[in-house]
Specification:
Strand content: 15-25%
Largest sheet: 8 strands, mixed
Shape: elongated
Radius of gyration: 25 Å
Oligomer: single chain
Strand order of the largest sheet: 6-8-7-9-10-11-12-13
Number of strands: 13
Number of helices: 19
CATH superfamily of the largest domain: P-loop containing nucleotide triphosphate hydrolases
Length: 474
């Protein structure tokens, strides 16, 4: 087994489950390719009391046949395939009840890992009912049992496990929502793959591939970033050329509607409110749209945030996945036949600026840590001025309980950024318009987040703090 890169919080949850003195039911979920199976298998070194995985796109009989193979591997002597899932779980229970069952060498827990459970639950299957009975009727009474269920089909996991209206949702003891790696973890992963690059280029990799481990595993260390992007995304035979549709199809039932929502959001860089989405897509009913938005958030494709002036209403939904944004703008539309000719152009520099802003939005915890406010309760907002002329827009502001509001301004640049008089005036106007329109009585400061910092300039007096991209790797 390979070592786990990063994922410290998730590994701590696994440690807590293993060392617990009670039965544990752990649900692991997240978008496809994010490394769920890798994390669990490598943490336990592949040594489980029982392990089985669902098979994509197969019917109930074939799922049971695959489960039967796992039963044999772990010591079941019955050669016939289970007739239904109740029998399958009963035979698994017999394996787990044997004195010879494999246990965790330290805690002595019996660790059961059921991977891709949404695939096991094929149409007209009794899998869900059998899983409920297995846990509620037996496993929940065994203090040395750790049951781990995992799946990429987020809509199924949310509906049938986490938000189930039956008895199983209230029995879940722990959950891991596995999201993209952060910059620090990606840097470690790249070094693990022997791709030795400066941090500025690691940020650029993140602009394309976010923190999805599978995407990084495809990189060819002999190629530059531009060459890898060209080969993986723009080449007709590239491993990620058709990733967009394949990704959504594997995650969601009726995935076409999820794509419809993503396309609508893609038309607005600053995002759309729930009411605006309703007007754009009247064919998707309210309850269905709410579910789709929740599932897209759980997969880290979009974010939901409030406008500072409307803290309790008017939430805005915005795409927060750089890979999706890049794919929709350049790959799918075929506005570029390749990426190599694009590098260095004005359009490229503009895209980098937008992508860097998204990277910063994904690293708010790191920004707070650098500012020394990790221990202060905060809320993050956006803000739009009501003025049509002379107004302003803030994509990220941090509202702090210490009576301070921090406006975050991002700037991607290939060298230190010079704060010109004009730019300084714009920042001063943005701050003043915000204070006047919101009538806030809190202190308002401005933080500049740049690639390499700011040059020495008399205009720096507008900036309370500055953060470089290097500091986002904390």
């Amino acid at each position: 087994m390979e070592r786990i890169i990063g994922r410290e919080k998730e590994q701590q949850i696994l440690r807590d489950c293993v060392n617990s003195s009670r039965p544990e039911f752990l649900v692991v979920y997240g978008r496809r390719r994010i490394g769920k199976t890798y994390l669990i298998k490598n943490y336990f070194d592949g040594k489980f009391s029982f392990y089985a995985t669902g098979v994509f796109g197969k019917r109930n009989r074939q799922q049971l046949q695959a489960f039967n193979v796992a039963l044999h591997e772990f010591g079941d002597s019955d050669k016939s395939s289970p007739k239904n899932w109740f029998e399958a779980f009963a035979r698994m229970k017999q394996i787990l009840s044997k004195d010879t069952v494999r246990r965790d060498p330290v805690s002595k827990k019996r660790v059961v890992f059921l991977d891709e459970v949404p695939w096991m639950n094929s149409p007209n299957s009794d899998f869900k009912a059998a899983l409920d009975l297995f846990w509620n009727g037996w496993a929940s009474t065994q203090n040395d049992i750790l049951l781990i269920v995992c799946g990429s089909a987020t809509s199924w996991i949310l509906k049938n496990i986490l938000y189930d209206r039956g008895g199983i949702a209230h029995r879940i003891t722990k959950k891991i929502h596995l999201g993209p790696m952060n910059l620090k973890e990606c840097e470690a992963y790249l070094k693990f793959k022997q791709i030795d690059i400066p941090r500025h280029q690691t940020v650029e990799y993140y602009m394309f591939f976010v923190g999805v481990p599978y995407y990084y595993s495809l990189l060819d260390r002999r190629m530059s970033l531009a060459q890898n992007v060209n080969e993986l995304l723009f080449s007709k035979d590239g491993a990620l050329h058709n990733e967009f549709v394949f990704l959504f199809r594997s995650l969601f039932k009726n995935y076409e509607r999820h794509i419809q929502v993503i396309r609508a959001l893609n038309e607005s860089e600053s995002g759309l409110t729930r009411e605006e989405l309703d007007n754009i897509m009247p064919d998707i009913t309210g309850g269905t749209l709410d579910r789709i938005l929740k599932e897209l958030i759980e997969c880290d494709f979009i974010r939901k945030y409030n406008c500072f002036a409307k803290k309790t209403r008017g939430a805005i939904y915005q795409i927060i996945d750089p890979m999706l944004l890049f794919y929709l703008k350049y790959v799918e539309r075929e506005s570029r036949t390749g990426w190599l000719s694009f590098v260095g152009s004005n359009e490229y520099n503009s895209w980098c600026g937008d992508a860097f802003e998204v990277v910063c939005l994904l690293h708010v915890d790191q920004i707070k840590q650098v500012l020394g406010i990790s221990g202060i309760e905060t809320e993050e907002y956006s803000w739009r001025s009501r003025k049509k002329k002379g107004g302003a827009q803030i994509d990220l502001l941090i509202d702090r309980k210490d009576k301070t509001i921090t406006i975050c301004e991002t700037k991607y640049h290939s060298k230190k950024f010079e704060l010109s008089s004009k730019y300084s005036e714009d920042l001063a106007n943005k701050r003043q318009v915000f204070i006047e329109e919101t009538k806030t009585r809190k202190a308002v400061n401005i933080v500049m987040i740049t690639s390499y910092g700011l040059t020495d300039s008399s205009n720096r007096h507008m900036i309370t703090n500055e953060i470089t991209e290097d500091q986002l790797f904390v």
